[in-house]
Amino acid sequence: MSDSDASGDRRSGEGESSEGGSSLGERDAAAFAEAGSAGLVPQSAGLYQLLVESVRDYAIFALDPTGVIVSWNAGAERIKGYAAREVIGRHFSIFYTPEDLANDKPGDELARAAAEGRAEDEGWRVRKDGTEFWASVIVTALRDATGRLVGFAKVTRDLTERRRVEDQLRGSEERLRILIQSVKDYGIFMLDPDGRVASWNEGARRIKGYEADEILGQHFSVFYPEPARASGFPDYELEVARAVGRFEDEGWRVRKDGTQFWANVVITALFGDDGSLIGFAKVTRDLTERRLAQQREIEDARRLAESDASNRAKTGFLAAMSHELRTPLNAIAGYAQLMQDGVAGPITEQQDEYLARIRGSQQHLLGIVNDLLNYSRIEAGEVAYELSALPLHDVVERVMSMVRPQADRKRLRLDAGAAEPPVIALADRLKTEQIVLNLVSNAVKFTPEGGAVTVTCVLRGRVAAIDVRDTGPGIPEDKQEMIFDPFVQLGRSLTSAHEGAGLGLAISRDLARAMNGDVTVQSTPGSGATFTLSLPVA
Ligand code: ADP
Fold first, then answer.
1. Is 0.85 topped by the overall pTM?
2. Which of these, 436, 445, 509, 517, has the minimum number of CB atoms within 10 Å of its CB?
């Protein structure tokens, strides 16, 4: 190839095959063009010209020293849209954008090529129809044997498509990078093959507390607690990842401030096309919260089991105690009775009165002990229920007759509420009587002299209910649930006139609930209370 000797630093381009599918390397084409042009200017003829004219993938054309177009090939026509007759004789600046023209880029290019032998450029150029394309351009100065500049060869390739693909690729890489950067819930970062941190995202910053510039370049073992570091665990992780591609682990890791967090870690080895290790991708999640929640659950379950066991122990204890207490209590009553009956000799009137008080106290104590026993039996699930269709009016009538003497003593009005069609519950008769007796006794007990207690049977949808209303002091809003707890008595003092163990309502509610019912209270302090036993309708 007869290169023009004067063309300066021309690189031969052999073996440096250019991108793109063309059979003709870019530099080869340029060389052809130069050679052809050399032949063409000043004389047009020869094989080169033919060759150059037929090349379609490259625009190859010649300029005179001032930039006027003097030759045009098929590729130039295809890429730029002008036919040869339309452009030959015109200045090549018609291919430039207004901005490039304003900066005299065409002039620059020629000057550079003239000075250095050749000039390369990539940039936007304008087609005949005004559209732009991304061009790779090589301008080569052409000189004759004396070194005189005779013109320029220009080879242009249309790289619009390649640029578009590159842009797209760059765009999607950029998007991915931004995405990874901004992920907050996962620490995502790269390690180089030696385990040094090579990239850092927002999640990693948030979880581990290091800013990117503090941690880049550091070995990732800084994230491990001392014992793990000492045992070489970090390197082991990388070894496994390298060997099998991936390593997953859960364990304690250390933040910048020294605090620890429970991490789930996945390390993936990254290999290049040639199989060499590029590094590792590491994804870290902070599971501290989740782990704490799990531990709390376990802890709660354990406590529940324990308190269940301690509850059972307590009821067992109550049952045993009540049994033990009843025997001596019965003995006290028995012997007091014997003395009162004069079995051990005559007694004075005073002694008789004292013995009566002993027996009264014994009765009272026995009542409490029986309540205790009842309660512990119910709690232990030892009570059997016989459910049947139970007319609640019957229950109310029986209970009222039992309580009437007490009510009369306190001059209380004790009424059954307005008559209704019979209300029939599905319930155990004795348990229901026990509950209602307890509610009505309480009403009588807590209502001051001259007040009234009203007991009403009502049907509320699928619920058969008994309301026990009194005109007593009522129960403060914040105590209305509490009074159903065992051993709770309001306003209780040593001198309190009221008796009982504070088990009545607890027992009543347990019994009612065991029959799929409930005992509830409504009260406005100062204007009495209404206790309601609700049971399923038969
Ligand atoms: P006891 O009657 O043995 O004290 P209860 O469980 O039956 O135990 O009642 C618990 C507490 O609820 C009582 O001590 C009392 O303070 C309150 N209470 C129950 N019934 C009434 C009522 N009708 N009016 C006002 N307070 C009541």
1. no
2. 445
